[in-house]
Design brief:
- The structure holds two protein chains of two kinds.
- Chain A is of the alpha/beta class.
- Chain A has ten helices and ten strands.
- In chain A, strands 6-7-8-3-9-10 form a six-stranded mixed sheet, with helices on both faces. A four-stranded antiparallel sheet of chain A has the order 2-1-4-5.
- In chain A, helix 4 runs parallel beside helix 6.
- The longest helix of chain A has 16 residues.
- Chain A is globular.
- The relative contact order of chain A is 0.16.
- The N terminus of chain A is likely disordered.
- The longest helix of chain B is centred in the first third of the chain and has 35 residues.
- Chain B is mainly α.
- Helix content of chain B is 82%, strand content 0%.
- Chain B contains eight helices and no strands.
- The chains are: A alpha/beta, B mainly alpha.
- At the A-B interface, helix 3, strand 6 and helix 4 of A face helix 5 and helix 6 of B.
């Protein structure tokens, strides 16, 4: 589909013809008899922002969690830079060092923040720098303060998560993920646990990241945000990708009746 | 002023052995329980079964039987342990089983999201447990572990039956010499209380400190 899209869309489609940063081939996840994910084929180019939307239980989170192998696919393959990193069909999954390498390149932000409650905001951001990347304490600290400043939380460096608002906690979580200098950021409904006012702070940080060219896959229910920031929207339901397209097409003129049904339900609210 | 009876002073000589049995046993248990509780969480079923078998075997047999086995039983195959060594070792193995279960409960109390977050930032298993899971689990572990330690302090008295001259063993010996059963055992009881109260106080302080350090809520 190389119809006339504007702005970031152009850049993304140009990038898509180049090498994909991450790609899934026939990716599937079964839990016993339950098919959580089936035959997902998707590639994300460097610098591209992909929003994944769809009904709850439709496989969005499962898909996202496969991209850093928090969830192991039961079929299909996962490729990074064109190289197979996990192949469920042959049962080849990375473990040990290669697995850690993959995770250090892919940052993740969770719906429930999952900050380390016994550590201060700054310690949350420096922990993996020190123990996963092997940076010195001083280097990690300098970088950590920089990142906290970037998400607007310099004044919270010495504060524990329990004393921060939800929006602040999620911004610390973003800084924590960015500390590894990942090439891809995964967001799993980052604002769903926040009231709208606090969600905005988080969305602003994400908007900024996208503008700086970070490659992002965002599972979200925030349609306006997806429309504004995403280069491409993926609509998933019943464990499958129903439809993919640039926001203006997918949100306003979807091909599939299933997509239309979902969007009508969302817009009616 | 009444003179402190001689037997009271002699009872205090037993405190050393009671302390070695209690803390030695607890220390062995606290260390060995780490690999046992790790096996218990293994992805591999045979390893989990092994850990369960270890725990249930140790808990399923009366402690005194373990001490007899180590002291008299091993002597039969020419492994001669001193009463104190057999006592510390026996209490240590039993402690391993109980503390492994206490650790397991502590690890389970840490939300799964913490493990996932640690993995997502690329921490290895050791770093994950040392810096993320461990410091949170310990808050849940301290109170039951302290209760176990105080229990162990009193249970260490069974080592008297293989001849360790700890507080209860000495008290028994003294009664046979002095015919002052009531006073001597009352004194022995006071010695145990004097040892356990500071332990309980310390455990409460440590628990409160750890909880506030975590700043939950």
């Amino acid at each position: 589909m190389s119809t006339s899209t504007v702005g970031r869309g152009d850049r993304a489609s140009a990038a898509a013809t180049a090498d994909a940063l991450i790609r899934t081939e026939a990716l599937g996840v079964r839990f016993g008899d339950l098919v959580a994910l089936a035959d997902v084929e998707l590639e994300v180019a460097c610098g591209e922002v992909v929003a994944v939307i769809g009904p709850s239980g439709g496989g969005k989170s499962t898909f996202l969690r496969c991209l850093n192998l928090l969830e192991l696919p039961t079929s299909g393959r996962l490729l990074l830079d064109g190289e197979v990193v996990a192949d469920a069909d042959t049962g080849r999954f990375p473990s040990g060092r290669p697995l850690l390498q993959l995770r250090r390149q892919v940052g993740m932000v969770f719906q429930s923040f999952n900050l380390f409650p016994h550590l201060t905001a700054l310690e949350n951001v420096t922990l993996a720098q020190i123990h996963a990347l092997g940076r010195s304490n001083e280097e990690a600290r300098a970088r950590g303060l920089e990142l906290l400043a970037r998400v607007g939380l310099s004044d919270k460096a010495a504060t524990r998560p329990a004393h921060c608002s939800g929006g602040q906690q999620q911004r610390i979580a973003i800084a924590r993920a960015l500390a590894l200098e990942p090439r891809l950021m995964l967001f799993d409904e980052p604002t769903s646990a926040l009231d709208p006012e606090l969600g905005v702070e988080v969305l602003n940080v994400m908007r900024e990241l996208a503008r700086e060219g970070m490659t992002m896959v965002v599972v979200t229910h925030e349609m306006a945000f997806a429309a504004e920031v995403a280069d491409r929207i993926v609509f998933m339901a019943e464990g499958r990708v129903v439809e993919t397209g640039p926001p203006e097409l997918l949100l306003h003129d979807p091909r599939e009746p299933r997509t239309r049904r979902f969007l009508e339900a969302v817009l009616e609210r | 002023m009444t003179e402190i009876p001689d037997y009271a002073v002699r009872l205090l000589e037993g405190v050393r052995f009671t302390a070695i049995l209690t803390f030695g046993g607890f220390l062995i248990g606290a260390v060995l329980a780490v690999p046992v509780s790790a096996l218990r969480r293994s992805r591999l079923r045979p390893l989990r079964v092994l850990a369960i078998a270890y725990v249930e075997t140790l808990r399923g047999v009366p402690p005194i039987a373990w001490l007899f086995l180590l002291y008299f039983g091993l002597a039969q195959v020419d492994v001669r342990l001193s009463p104190l060594t057999a006592g510390v070792l026996g209490l240590g193995l039993i402690s391993t089983a109980y503390l492994a279960e206490i650790y397991r409960a502590g690890l389970r109390a840490v939300p799964l999201g913490q493990l996932e977050a640690a993995r997502a930032v690329g921490l290895g298993t050791v770093a994950t447990y040392r810096h993320v899971i461990g410091p949170q689990a310990i808050v849940t572990v301290v109170p039951p572990a302290a209760a176990f330690l105080i229990g162990l302090l009193k249970d260490s008295a069974i080592a008297s039956l293989i001849g360790v001259p700890e507080v209860t063993g000495l008290a028994l010996r003294l009664t046979q010499q002095e015919f002052e059963g009531l006073a001597i055992f009352a004194a022995a009881g006071l010695v145990y209380i004097a040892l356990s109260v500071p332990l309980a106080t310390f455990a409460r302080w440590l628990g409160a400190r750890l909880t506030s350090r975590l700043a939950f809520g």
